[in-house]
Every structure is written in structure tokens, then in C-alpha cells.
Amino acid sequence: MARDRSLTNEIKYPHIIELWVNAHELDFELSRRIMKFHRARHIQVRHGRKIVRENKIYFRWCFSDLPTAHGFMERFEGSFATTL
Fold first, then answer.
1. Hey, which bits of 1-84 come out as E strands?
2. pLDDT tens digits, residue range 22-33?
3. Are 64 and 78 in contact (CB under 8 A)?
4. Angstrom distance (rounded) from CA 80 to CA 58
5. Does the reported pTM lie above 0.85?
6. Order of all β-strands in the sheet with 56-63
7. Which of 56, 63, 68, 67 is nearest to 19 (CA)?
8. Which residues of 18-57 are buried (b: 16+ CB within 10 A; e: fewer)?
């Protein structure tokens, strides 16, 4: 079920930022900072899929607008998602 929601988020909210994480889960502090970013902008957290590429794990967040996605990317040193 969650996988379907993640894919739906990626389709509906096309500005996707990937963060490389050196673990199978996000650490608590990073998660807290991400939640704070979303709360400060009064937007809902929308997760995309977890992607494994070249033995690296990337977590994805989806945004409806480009400026917010760009701000997230800069704040958390992410990158715009590549097309799969």
C-alpha cells in the first residue's frame, strides 16, 4: 500500500528531490529537520519511492512547486530525481 502511495505522490507532485542516505533508514535528526522544513512552509510531507542505484540508497520527497523543491534540495544537499 505505501509503495502505491509513494508512486502516486511522484506522479501528482512532479518536483522530486532525492537524498542519498548511508543506511536503510533515515536517522532521527535528519527526519526531524525534514519535518521542521515542511511545517515551516505549512506543507504536507509527501514521500516518494526509496531507490537503490549503484548500491546507494536514495530517499525521495515530492513537491508541487519548483521553488519549494529547490529550497529542500539546497537545505538538505539533495538532487533532483533522475528519470527511471
1. 15-21, 47-53, 56-63, 79-80
2. 877 888 999 999
3. no
4. 11
5. yes
6. 47-53, 56-63, 15-21, 79-80
7. 56
8. bbeeeeeebeeeeeeebeebbeeeeeeebebbbbeeeeeb
